[in-house]
């Protein structure tokens, strides 16, 4: 038996809703085809943005959306993507598949997307191949209310009022595709570029410095030492890759070995956040600067027959467990992790949505985002737990992972992941500190009959959440039977 104590009256800070953020890059069919089809498309759309994708994304309450990259950001010249569409320069997306893009999805279209989704834009500027002036003028174009060359140009292009822009990234992966810089050099460039990312009028920009590649702790150390005072957030990127970068493993054809290593690598996020946070603590003990995990998720080999530069992969129940485990880790570090953005929203890497022409399906990962949206901006609740292990070939991982939160209306939600693909887990959850108003429980479960269960255009509902019957409440104790390889969210009712 696995024992859990949930202290419903001990809260541990807000779970920033931005932990449920997303990332959409000009990569493969994420933007073009996946989100943007253009106004003349036969696919039903709102000013060029496809309606089915829009509705599905609205449902999961996306709080913040990062754009235009990724590696694309450090090659993107925003001025080519504004003004009359017929005059926009075509460009070659050299980093991702060498395809030609018509630049029809630019700043105005991205801001429209955010407005339609009701989310905050998070724009990533170009440090690698762009100038300080170009970055500074982009911010002026988007946020300046008065008379200025850029604000006037925005008006000419059809937008009278400035947009609200809170999150701005000063470059992306500047240790790699963003310029192959050393930490010392980038930290100096960061100081310089961010100087001209101005706050106009009432707009306040939260500046995010390009951060480390997974366990590059030196990068975090140097950035914090040299530029802590000039940043609000520092990013880190970490992908769950079961194999190596040459052969990452298949998204759907895998056995228990790959399942186990994927879970092990997903759990590694805990170690990475702890170690980066420890370094940040030395320079920022008040935890003012947020750790921004603005790229995370699974990365497998592309699906057979697809463009290797498009990073299109299927999404199985394994991805759902990876997502759940990540959310629990982010919740546990809610004192430092202020935002996370899964890579990527549509048709790329660990996507929420896959499209094929006019068809669209939701992935198991999408369903986890939907089940977990109840935790957005809720107070984390203290949990003590001791779980048995999921053993594979002599190696052990905690079989179950748990998180709990309380909404502003006092509603308690508990989410659980059982990563063992063959064994159920019986849990006894003691609820302490209940004030007598919570008397029943309901739940939703996401599971399937096989590790690689996934949704296809022919069978879109193979993996989808259903009502959970494996929970019983007796006074202040929940008895839970978690099916093998499952994600569950419970709600206490009053
Ligand atoms: O998400 C795909 C790519 O992964 C991004 O463009 C880049 O930042 C990272 O290496």
Can you walk me through this structure?
This protein is α/β, with parallel strands linked by helices and 494 residues long. Helix content is 24%, strand content 29%. The protein has nine helices and 26 strands. The protein has a ten-stranded mixed β-sheet with strand order 23-22-26-20-19-16-1-21-25-24, with helices on one face. Strands 2-5-8-9-10-11-12-13 form an eight-stranded parallel β-barrel, surrounded by five helices. Helix 8 (317-332) links the parallel strand 12 (290-298) and strand 13. Helix 5 crosses helix 6 (217-227) and helix 7 packs parallel to helix 8 (317-332). The chain is globular, with a radius of gyration of 22 Å. Residues 25, 69-71, 172-173, 295, 343-344, 349 line the site of alpha-L-arabinofuranose.
Helix content: 10-25%
Number of helices: 9
| Beta-strand residue fraction | 25-35%
Mean pLDDT: 97
Main sheet summary: 10 strands, mixed
How many beta strands in the DSSP annotation?
Answer: 26
Q: What are the defining features of this structure?
A:
9 helices, alpha/beta, 29% strand, 8-stranded parallel β-barrel, 10-stranded mixed β-sheet, 494 residues, binds alpha-L-arabinofuranose
SSE diagram, text form:
Blueprint: E1 2-14, E2 21-23, E3 45-46, E4 49-50, H1 51-59, E5 64-67, E6 91-93, E7 99-101, H2 107-117, E8 120-125, H3 132-143, H4 149-156, E9 167-170, H5 183-195, E10 206-213, H6 217-227, E11 233-240, H7 256-283, E12 290-298, H8 317-332, E13 337-343, E14 353-356, E15 359-362, H9 364-372, E16 379-386, E17 389-392, E18 395-398, E19 400-406, E20 412-418, E21 425-432, E22 440-446, E23 466-467, E24 471-474, E25 477-482, E26 486-493
Parallel strand pairs: 1-21, 2-5, 2-13, 5-8, 8-9, 9-10, 10-11, 11-12, 12-13
Antiparallel strand pairs: 1-16, 3-4, 6-7, 14-15, 16-19, 17-18, 19-20, 20-26, 21-25, 22-23, 22-26, 24-25
Helix pairs in contact: 3-4, 5-6, 6-7, 7-8, 8-9
The protein binds alpha-L-arabinofuranose.
């Amino acid at each position: 038996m696995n024992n859990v104590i949930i202290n419903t009256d001990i809260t541990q800070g807000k779970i920033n809703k931005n932990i449920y953020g997303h990332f959409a890059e000009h990569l493969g069919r994420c933007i073009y085809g996946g989100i943007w089809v253009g106004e003349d498309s036969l696919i039903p759309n709102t000013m060029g943005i496809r309606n089915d994708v829009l509705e599905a994304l609205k449902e999961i309450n996306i709080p913040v959306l990062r754009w235009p990259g990724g590696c694309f950001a450090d090659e993107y010249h925003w001025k080519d993507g504004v003004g009359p569409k017929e005059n926009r320069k075509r460009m070659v997306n050299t980093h991702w598949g060498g395809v030609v893009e018509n630049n029809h999805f630019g700043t105005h279209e991205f801001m429209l997307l955010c407005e339609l989704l009701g989310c905050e834009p998070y724009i990533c500027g170009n440090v690698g191949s762009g100038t300080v002036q170009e970055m500074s003028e982009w911010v002026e174009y988007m946020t300046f209310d008065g008379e200025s060359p850029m604000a006037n140009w925005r008006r000419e292009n059809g937008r009278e009022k400035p947009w609200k822009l809170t999150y701005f990234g000063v470059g992306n992966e500047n240790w790699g595709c963003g310029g192959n810089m050393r930490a010392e050099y980038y930290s100096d460039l960061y100081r310089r570029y961010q100087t001209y990312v101005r706050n106009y009028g009432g707009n306040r920009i939260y500046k995010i410095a390009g951060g480390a590649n997974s366990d590059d702790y030196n990068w975090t150390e140097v950035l914090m030492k040299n530029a802590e005072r000039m940043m609000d957030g520092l990013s880190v990127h970490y992908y769950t890759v079961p194999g190596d970068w040459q052969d990452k493993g298949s998204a759907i054809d895998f056995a228990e070995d790959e399942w186990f290593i994927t879970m092990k690598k997903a759990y590694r996020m805990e170690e990475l956040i702890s170690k980066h946070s420890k370094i940040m603590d030395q320079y920022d003990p008040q935890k003012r600067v947020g750790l921004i995990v603005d790229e995370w998720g699974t990365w497998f080999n592309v699906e057979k027959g697809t463009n290797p530069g498009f990073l299109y992969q299927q999404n199985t129940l394994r991805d759902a467990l990876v997502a759940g485990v990540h959310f629990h880790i982010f919740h546990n570090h809610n004192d430092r992790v202020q935002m996370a953005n899964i890579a990527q929203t549509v048709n790329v890497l660990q996507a929420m949505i896959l499209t094929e022409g006019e068809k669209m399906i939701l992935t198991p990962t999408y369903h986890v985002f939907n089940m977990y949206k109840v935790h957005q901006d809720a107070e984390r609740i203290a949990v003590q737990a001791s779980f048995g292990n999921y053993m594979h070939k002599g190696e052990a991982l905690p079989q179950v992972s748990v998180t709990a939160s309380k909404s502003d209306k006092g509603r308690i939600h508990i989410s659980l992941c059982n990563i063992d693909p063959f064994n159920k887990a019986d849990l006894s959850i003691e609820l302490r500190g209940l004030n007598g108003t919570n008397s029943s429980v309901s739940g939703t479960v996401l599971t399937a009959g096989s590790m690689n269960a996934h949704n296809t255009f022919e069978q879109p509902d193979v993996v989808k959440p259903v009502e959970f019957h494996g929970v019983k409440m007796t006074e202040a104790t929940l008895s839970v039977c978690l099916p093998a390889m499952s994600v569950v969210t419970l709600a206490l009712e009053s």
